[in-house]
Amino acid sequence: MYFRLPILSIFLLFTSGCSSISYYTHLMSGHFALMSGEKPIEEVLAQQETSAELKAKLQQVLVMRQFAVAELGLPDNGSYKKFVKLDRKYPVWNVVATKPYSITPRQWCFLVVGCISYRGYFNEAAAQAKAAELQGQGYDVQVSGASAYSTLGWFNDPLVSSMLYRDDVHLAGVLFHELAHQQVYIENDSAFNEAFATAVELEGVRRWLLKLNDPAANQRYRIYKERQKDFNQLLRGTREKLKQFYAAEKEPQKLAEGKRRLFAELQQEYLVLKKRWDGYDGYDKWMAQGLNNAHLALTATYHELVPAFEALLQRLDYDLPRFYAEVTRIGKLEKAERQAALADVQITKVE
């Protein structure tokens, strides 16, 4: 699908005592089952049965991986140097839940990675079962497949076949995004982590396209990112309307009616946006899901703070090592101070 929540890079290897043993077992078995199928990319390239299309993709990945180290200063480790061909569409499915009249996602807390805004499953049926359980408790719920897989540096992460669905430019973005999580990761702050990784992804792709000197690819990516920005702004506007409405209204029937009205307005505003895009329908499938609060919750997680990180990068003259160091420093602050530091970043106009 064209709209995806830029990649959900999470692996919950260690779990707190409040989590069920069965969930812990699911994570461990799912992880090791995935790892058992990995092969070095060079070995896959050497196999006669490997298709020419897959070989071309894998060769590009090796080049992108080296670029990430040499040009972006991202970790030089074993991640994305081995390949796993999945027997399913995604390596993991993630469950997001909100209260019926809130756009704040429920948090699940684990050791090492802290609290996050979604719960991952290696099995779609297990994810759907958890979603049904949460719906039974009155939550709004979304289940979405995550095409990338990351252990946040605890293991060497494999390249999974689901990461190869898109074109080479988007594949580069996925790799840069996931490696950025290994560069900086702050416990209990999904919005900070995902916005940082997205900012690195955008800057990385910009530099990658300059290296390729491919004006057509650059134009396609520019149009894609402009549409993505438009769409995110549309969702952000609806999210803010819902937030204000839920805070102001307390009567149950009016809450339900107002919620339906605001989501109906979102659908109408989307049609207007499509006309501006000359009928581009890349987000139609996402909009047809039967939207609820949970569908909007993580758009904030991935996009709300991106402008602040981009402004910080600009202020540092696009020096990525300095950027990583400053992000690390900000990340060590208490959460309120961290948010204030990002809010204080002002975009410096480049002459």
What brief labels describe this structure?
single chain, 351 residues, mainly alpha, 13 helices
What would your notes on this structure say?
It is a single chain. This protein is mostly helical and 351 residues long. It has one domain (21-343). It has 13 helices and 8 strands. It has helices at 21-36, 41-46, 52-70, 124-136, 168-183, 190-212, 215-248, 252-276, 284-287, 293-303, 306-315, 320-331, 335-343; strands spanning 39-40, 82-84, 92-98, 108-110, 114-116, 119-121, 140-146, 159-160. Strands 1-2-8 form a 3-stranded mixed β-sheet. The protein has a 3-stranded antiparallel β-sheet with strand order 6-3-7. A two-stranded antiparallel sheet has the order 4-5. α7 packs antiparallel against α8. It is globular. Residues 1-18 have low confidence and may be disordered.
**Topology, number of strands:** 8
Give the CA-based shape: globular
Strand order, largest beta sheet: 1-2-8
Residue fraction in strands: 5-15%
* Total DSSP helices: 13
Number of domains: 1
Which oligomerization state do the chains in this entry correspond to?
Answer: single chain
Mean pLDDT: 87
Spatial extent as radius of gyration:
20 Å
Order of helices and strands: HEHHEEEEEHEEHHHHHHHHH
Low-confidence stretches: 1-18
Topology:
Blueprint lengths: L20 H16 L2 E2 H6 L5 H19 L11 E3 L7 E7 L9 E3 L3 E3 L2 E3 L2 H13 L3 E7 L12 E2 L7 H16 L6 H23 L2 H34 L3 H25 L7 H4 L5 H11 L2 H10 L4 H12 L3 H9 L8
Parallel strand pairs: 2-8
Antiparallel strand pairs: 1-2, 3-6, 3-7, 4-5
Helix pairs in contact: 3-5, 5-6, 6-10, 6-11, 7-8, 7-10
